[in-house]
C-alpha cells in the first residue's frame, strides 16, 4: 500500500499530464466527430461577450464596404420588386417561398477561415429562436449551417469546413452534388459527385439544391472555376464563391417553417 | 529577509496572472485573426509557459498550461487541441530546459534574460515546434494531410518564434 502511494507521489507530474492530455484528446475527438463539440465552444457567455466587444470596435473599420454591400443588395431587391409587380404568377411563387422560409438578420462577431474546420460566431441565439441545422447566407451567397446555439450566440459551421456537405446544383441543368472544401483556398470550394453526363462549362453558376430542408432552392453559391473528371466517372468542380468568406459582417439565418413536417415525412418513409 | 522573500513570491504570482490573461486575450483577439498568406497564424501565448519561473512548481505549471490551452480552445472552437499541445510542452519543459541550458539550469539560470541568445533561441524554437506539431496534428487529424501538418507547423512555427523573440526583446526588464 505504501509503495502504491509512494509511486503516485513520485510520478504525480506524469500522471497529471496523462490525465489532462487524455481529457484534451477526448475533447479533440469529440470536435472531430459529426455533430461536434458540445462542451467547448465559443457560444459561451465569456467568449461571446468578449467577441461582441471587439467586433463592436472593429466593425467601424469596414463600415464603408459593408454599406456598399447593403446598397447593392437594396438595389437588387428594388429591381426584383419592380419586375415581380408586373408578372403575377412569379409574385405568387414568391409569396409561397416567403411563407415557407423566415429570415433573421444577425451580425458576425467572430470569423475564422485559416483552419481546416472553420466556424463563425454570430450575435443571436435561441432567444431569437435560432436553432441547430438552420442555414445561413449573406447578401451575396451561402455561408454555412448553424451547429450550436446558446441563449445569445450561435456558432455556424462554415462552408470552409472539411465536415461540411451542402447540397448544391448546376443552375443550368439541375445536376446536383455536394459542396466540400479541400482546405487550400478560402475563396474556392469543391462540388463533388456531379455526374459525367452533366454539361459543364467554366463560368457556370452554382446554386443550392432544394433537396435539403435547410436551404431554399436557388441561393447563389459561386461560379465554376475549373473541373476535373474523377476515377468514379463523376466531376469534381472547383467553385469560386460569390461570397468573400474572409470579410463577413451581416448574415441572414433561414428558418424553414415546414422542416419538422418534411423530416417526419422522410423518416416515416424509411420505417416502411 | 523573510518578508522580502514573501513579497517577491507575491509579485511573481501577480505577474504570472497578468501574463496569463494578457497573452490569452492577445491571442484570441489579435493573433488568431492575422491569417498571413491565408492561413498562417502565430501562437505566441506559449510565452506564458516559456517564462513561468524556472524553479516554480512543475505540477502547477502542467495544470496552468492545460487551463491556458483550454481557454484558447473556448475562444477558437477547436475542441481540445490547444489544451493537449500546451499540456505536452508544460510537461516537457524541464527536459527542454535541461536540453537548452545544460543540466545545472536550476542553479545558475534564474531568469531567461541571463542566458546567451543562442541558448535562449534553442529553448524557444524547440518548445514552439513541439507545441505547433502537436497542435496541427490534432487539429487536422488526418494522415492524408501530413504535408499540410508539416507545412503549417513550419510556417506558423517560424512566425511564432520571430514574434516571441520580438516580444521578449521589447519587454526585457533590466536586471539590477
Instruction: Calculate the terminal CA-CA distance of chain A, rounded to whole Å.
Output: 61 Å
Coarse structural class of chain A: alpha+beta
Helix amount of chain B: over 70%
Give the low-confidence spans of chain B. Answer: none
What proportion of the residues of chain B form beta strands (DSSP E)? under 5%
Q: What is the chain-wise order of helices and strands of chain A?
A: HHHHHEEEEEEEEEEEEH
The CATH level-2 architecture of the largest domain in chain A is identified as: Beta Barrel
Structural commentary:
The complex is a heterodimer of chains A (272) and B (176). With 272 residues, chain A is an alpha+beta fold. Chain A folds into two domains: 129 residues, Thrombin, subunit H (Beta Barrel); 76 residues, Thrombin, subunit H (Beta Barrel). Chain A is built from six helices and twelve strands. Chain A has a six-stranded antiparallel beta barrel with strand order 1-2-5-4-3-12. A six-stranded antiparallel beta barrel of chain A has the order 6-7-8-11-10-9. In chain A, strand 7 and strand 8 form a beta hairpin. Helices cover 72% and strands 0% of the residues of chain B. Chain B has 176 residues and is mainly alpha-helical. Chain B has one domain. Chain B is globular and about 55 Å long. The mean pLDDT of chain B is 86. The interface between A and B is large, with 42 and 38 residues.
Amino acid at each position: 500500500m505504501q509503495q502504491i502511494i509512494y509511486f503516485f507521489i513520485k510520478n504525480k507530474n506524469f500522471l497529471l499530464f496523462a490525465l489532462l492530455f487524455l481529457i484534451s484528446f477526448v475533447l479533440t475527438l469529440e470536435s472531430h466527430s459529426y455533430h461536434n463539440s458540445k462542451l467547448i465552444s465559443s457560444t459561451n457567455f465569456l467568449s461571446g461577450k468578449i467577441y461582441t466587444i471587439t467586433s463592436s470596435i472593429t466593425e467601424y473599420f469596414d463600415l464603408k464596404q459593408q454599406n456598399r454591400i447593403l446598397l447593392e443588395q437594396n438595389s437588387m431587391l428594388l429591381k426584383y420588386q419592380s419586375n415581380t409587380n408586373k408578372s403575377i404568377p412569379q409574385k405568387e411563387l414568391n409569396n409561397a417561398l416567403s411563407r415557407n422560409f423566415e429570415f433573421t438578420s444577425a451580425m458576425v462577431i467572430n470569423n475564422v477561415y485559416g483552419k481546416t474546420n472553420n466556424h463563425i460566431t454570430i450575435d443571436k441565439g435561441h432567444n431569437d429562436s435560432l436553432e441547430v441545422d438552420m442555414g445561413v447566407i449573406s447578401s451575396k451567397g451561402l455561408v454555412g449551417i448553424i451547429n450550436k446555439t446558446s441563449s445569445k450566440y450561435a456558432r455556424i459551421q462554415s462552408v470552409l469546413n472539411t465536415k461540411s456537405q451542402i447540397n448544391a446544383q448546376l443552375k443550368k441543368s439541375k445536376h446536383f452534388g455536394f459542396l466540400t472544401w479541400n482546405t487550400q483556398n478560402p475563396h474556392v470550394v469543391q462540388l463533388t459527385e456531379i455526374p459525367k453526363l452533366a454539361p459543364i462549362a467554366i463560368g457556370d453558376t452554382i446554386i443550392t439544391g432544394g433537396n435539403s430542408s435547410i436551404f431554399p432552392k436557388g441561393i447563389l453559391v459561386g461560379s465554376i472555376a475549373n473541373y476535373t473528371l474523377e476515377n468514379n466517372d463523376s466531376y469534381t468542380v472547383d467553385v469560386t464563391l460569390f461570397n468573400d468568406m474572409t470579410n463577413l459582417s451581416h448574415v441572414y439565418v433561414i428558418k424553414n417553417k415546414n422542416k419538422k413536417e418534411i423530416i417526419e415525412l422522410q423518416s416515416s418513409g424509411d420505417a416502411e | 529577509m523573510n518578508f522580502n522573500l514573501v513579497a517577491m513570491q507575491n509579485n511573481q504570482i501577480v505577474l504570472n496572472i497578468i501574463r496569463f490573461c494578457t497573452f490569452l486575450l492577445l491571442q484570441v483577439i489579435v493573433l488568431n485573426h492575422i491569417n498571413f498568406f491565408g492561413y498562417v497564424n502565430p501562437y505566441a501565448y506559449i510565452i506564458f509557459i516559456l517564462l513561468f519561473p524556472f524553479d516554480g512548481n512543475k505540477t502547477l505549471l502542467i495544470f496552468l498550461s492545460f487551463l491556458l490551452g483550454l481557454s484558447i480552445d473556448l475562444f477558437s472552437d477547436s475542441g481540445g487541441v490547444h489544451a493537449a499541445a500546451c499540456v505536452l510542452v508544460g510537461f516537457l519543459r524541464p527536459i527542454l530546459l535541461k536540453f537548452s541550458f545544460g543540466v545545472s539550469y536550476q542553479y545558475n539560470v534564474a531568469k531567461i534574460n541571463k542566458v546567451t541568445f543562442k541558448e535562449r533561441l534553442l529553448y524557444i524554437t524547440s518548445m514552439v515546434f513541439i507545441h505547433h506539431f502537436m497542435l496541427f496534428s490534432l487539429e487536422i487529424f488526418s494522415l492524408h494531410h501530413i504535408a499540410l501538418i508539416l507545412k503549417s507547423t513550419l510556417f506558423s512555427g517560424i512566425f511564432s518564434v520571430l514574434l516571441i523573440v520580438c516580444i521578449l526583446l521589447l519587454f526585457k526588464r533590466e536586471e539590477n
